[in-house]
Design a protein that fits this description.
The complex is a heterodimer of chains A (220) and B (343). Chain A is built from ten helices and no strands. Chain A has 220 residues and is mainly α. Chain A has one domain: Orthogonal Bundle (MetI-like fold), CATH 1.10.3720.10. The longest helix of chain A has 33 residues. Chain A is globular and about 65 Å long. The relative contact order of chain A is 0.15. Chain B is an alpha+beta fold and 343 residues long. In chain B, 26% of the residues lie in helices and 32% in strands. Chain B contains eleven helices and 19 strands. Chain B has a six-stranded mixed sheet, with helices on both faces. A five-stranded antiparallel sheet of chain B has the order 12-11-10-13-19, with no helix packed on it. Chain B has a five-stranded antiparallel sheet with strand order 14-18-15-16-17. In chain B, strand 16 and strand 17 form a beta hairpin. The longest helix of chain B has 18 residues. Chain B is elongated and about 75 Å long. The chains are: A mainly alpha (220), B alpha+beta (343). At the A-B interface, helix 6 and helix 7 of A face helix 2 and strand 5 of B.
Chain lengths: 220, 343
């Protein structure tokens, strides 16, 4: 069980970090820059929300197989940790992106303009105005992506299969236990998930509430 | 400070004006007032002097937008310290907060401040930049009447003390009247600039007349000359208007008088000779309260709007339907220059 949970954490941590690096510039561009065919771009990034995990997994498997398009380019990642990492990034992108975008949308363009007139260059503007304004949103988006990755099943199973220590994450481990009728062990693992989910959602909510009290935006 | 700016977007505008002390820029909504301020702050593209081609960071131009644009996660003090650097920043920021009489609220965040207080924090922040020019976009539009008065007083006092050229944009003519110099933006250019009294009494164009509350404007024909003015015939009525540059006889001209400056003739008091000239019998058609004064519409050879102070109405007790006589004292009759109507 420990091995499966450690693998899940490793996957979730790497995935949410990747999303932070990719998602923040992307969200910034979507909010503040002119993006051609914005609706189309957004639809593509948000599509994993509605796509069945098995469908997404199927296409990734085809692409990452040794004979697949990406496989032949050297990304021979099917049934490997790298494969489920890529799948998780794509699958959790909508969650992170939505949260990041909301964080940037709260930033008033007028405040950024005025800070320019006050002599703040790009670096100071980010450090003193933008980052302190958006970090709760970034953190909650990243936590959501982390939690979502911990819990995913379909995509990971399709792309990674069920290799202990390589691709068998905790959610698949539970599935295995139930298949093998080992309910007692499955119950313990499931309980760990319940505790984890609760703590993370509580953290996200607390962050939101505290932030609203600082900036004075109305609490929902 | 002499300003000469040309904008192409979002509208065509060529503004030339002088900013000295507290200068107001009056214009209808959509006339480009805000765009001009944003161009001066370097936030939209424009050509002109001064600061042309400089980025906003390099201009040292203080800009207060209508929403004040305070940073929500910073306290009042931190906001004021935003343009400052170095070890003395905190102390300097506190001094500016004292200057706007808000040092007791230094640790409040913007959402814990009233509109007027936010405005003063934003003002202190812009001043902390030690700007070369201060731009204020409708600084009183979101404030109640009492706060509006104290805010304008404070702005006027500080920019006068600091000796800071300040351009205040407004569509409120009461605010405009408080400035040292008033410029009026109309049809993409500054059409008139001068002391507010002069612009209010002698608007250059019909559009400016409307903006400054010059409600009675008529056209007539020049019917005769005298040494110090002309007689104008309008609807069979002859009105004397003083002018140093009399238009030729027969020319169609525009003239007008402010509602505050139309006088009601009291039958019990003899009139001095200049008032004896421009008199007209009228009927009171409409009488409504306007603040503490009364807006009266009278109708005779002309339809005139008259603003009656309460103490006058208390004595006269006018009612709709009353037959009275009004006088247009020549000093207050304004003859528009013909150029004002060519455009």
């Amino acid at each position: 069980m420990t091995e499966a949970f450690l693998l899940s954490f490793k996957l979730a941590a790497l995935t949410s970090l990747t999303l932070l690096v990719l998602g923040v510039p992307l969200a910034y561009a979507l909010v503040f820059k002119r993006v051609p065919a914005r609706a189309l771009v957004e639809a593509v990034f948000l599509m994993p929300l509605t796509l069945p995990p098995t469908v997404l997994g199927y296409y990734l498997l085809i692409l990452l197989a040794p004979e697949g398009f990406l496989g032949r380019l050297g990304f021979d990642w099917a049934f490997r940790f790298e494969g489920i990492w890529l799948a998780s990034v794509i699958f959790s992108l909508p969650f992170a992106l939505t949260a990041y975008r909301e964080a940037f949308q709260a930033v008033e363009p007028e405040v950024l303009e005025v800070s320019r007139t006050l002599g703040l260059g790009t670096l100071r503007r980010w450090r003193r105005v933008i980052l302190p304004w958006i970090w709760p949103g970034l953190l909650s988006g990243t936590l959501l992506a982390f939690a979502h990755t911990l819990g995913e099943f379909g995509v990971v199973l399709m792309v990674g299969g069920n290799l202990p220590g390589e691709t068998r994450v905790a959610s698949i481990y539970i599935f295995d236990l139930v298949q093998a009728l080992e309910f007692e062990q499955a119950a313990r693992a499931a309980l760990v998930f319940v505790a984890l989910s609760f703590v993370m959602v509580l953290t996200v909510r607390t962050l939101e509430v505290r932030w609203r009290s600082i900036t004075g935006s109305s609490a929902r | 400070m002499e300003i000469d700016y040309r904008l192409e977007r979002p509208l065509n505008l060529h503004a030339r004006l002088r900013v000295e002390g507290l200068t107001a820029l009056l214009g209808e909504s959509g006339s480009g007032k805000t765009s001009l301020l944003r161009a001066l702050a370097g936030l939209i593209r424009a050509r002109g002097r001064p600061f042309g081609g400089l980025r906003p960071e390099q201009r040292r131009v203080g800009y207060l937008p209508q929403g004040y644009a305070l940073v929500p996660h910073m306290t009042a003090l931190e906001n004021v310290a935003l343009p400052l650097r170095g070890p003395g920043a905190g102390r300097t920021a506190r001094r500016w907060l004292e200057r706007v009489e808000l040092d007791h609220l230094a640790d409040r965040r913007p959402h814990e401040l009233s509109g007027g207080e936010r405005q003063r924090v934003a003002l202190a922040r812009a001043l902390a930049l030690e700007p070369r020019l201060l731009l204020l976009d409708e600084p009183t539009s979101a404030l109640d009447a009492a706060t509006r008065e104290t805010t304008i007083d404070l702005i006027d006092r500080i920019v006068t003390e600091v000796g800071l050229p300040t351009l205040l944009v407004t569509h409120d003519r009461y605010v405009a009247a408080r400035s040292r110099s008033l410029a009026v933006l109309e049809h993409g250019a500054v059409r008139q600039q001068g002391p507010p009294d002069e612009v209010f009494a002698r608007p250059a164009t019909l559009g400016i007349a409307r903006l400054v509350g010059f409600a009675n404007v008529f056209s007539g024909r020049v019917a005769g000359h005298e040494a110090d003015g002309v007689w104008i015939e309008t609807e069979g009525l002859r009105v004397f208007a003083p002018t140093g540059a009399p238009p030729p006889p027969g020319r169609t001209v525009h003239w007008g008088i402010r509602p505050e400056e139309v006088m009601i003739v009291r039958p019990d008091r003899p009139l001095s000779s200049p008032l004896a000239r421009n008199r007209l019998a009228v009927v009171v058609r409409r009488l409504v309260k306007k603040g503490l004064a009364y807006a009266v519409r009278v109708e005779g050879a002309l339809v005139l709007e008259v603003l009656l102070p309460r103490h006058v109405q208390d004595r006269l007790r006018l009612r709709e339907g009353d037959r009275i006589e009004v006088a247009l004292k020549p000093t207050y009759v304004h003859l528009f220059s013909s150029e004002g109507f060519s455009s």
